[in-house]
Amino acid sequence: MSDFRNQISNRIAQTRGDLSQAAATGDDYLVEVSLGELEALTRIAVEHDLPIDGAEEDLASYGLALPASGVPSLPAQA
Fold first, then answer.
1. Which of 34, 40, 46, 76 is within CB 3.0–4.6 Å of 19 for a Cys-Cys bond?
2. Beta carbons of 45 and 16 less than 8 angstroms apart
3. Residue 71 to residues 43, 56, 67, 68, Cα–Cα distance (Å)
4. For residue 54, is it left (φ>0), alpha (ψ between -120 and 50) or beta?
5. What CA–CA distance (Å, rounded) separates 16 from 14?
6. Among 34, 13, 12, 10, which residue's Cα sits nearest to residue 24?
7. pLDDT tens digits, the chain, 78 residues: what are they?
8. What Cα–Cα distance (Å) separates residue 8 from each residue in 33, 43, 64, 65?
């Protein structure tokens, strides 16, 4: 496993833990900060085809989708 993959995986795991703790203690501000960080980290992971175990469920529980890879394509114009 590459160092980059290890670092991203570890940061995602830490952020998921922070999110869980913030939710358990009712710290709404830390929940929002953790969600933002988790979204950013999962976007990086998706862009580099790295596995992101558990992050999708955490984001979904707050009504957020897993970030898509790359720039979305625009519909063809007639």
1. 34
2. no
3. 11, 19, 10, 8
4. left
5. 5
6. 34
7. 689 999 999 999 999 999 999 999 999 999 999 999 999 999 998 888 888 888 888 888 888 887 765 544 445 555
8. 17, 11, 20, 19
Q: Which residues of 49-61 are buried (b: 16+ CB within 10 A; e: fewer)?
A: ebebeebeebbee
Position 30, amino acid: L
User: For residue 50, is it left (φ>0), alpha (ψ between -120 and 50) or beta?
Assistant: beta
Q: Per the structure block, which two tokens stand in for 64? A: 């957020």
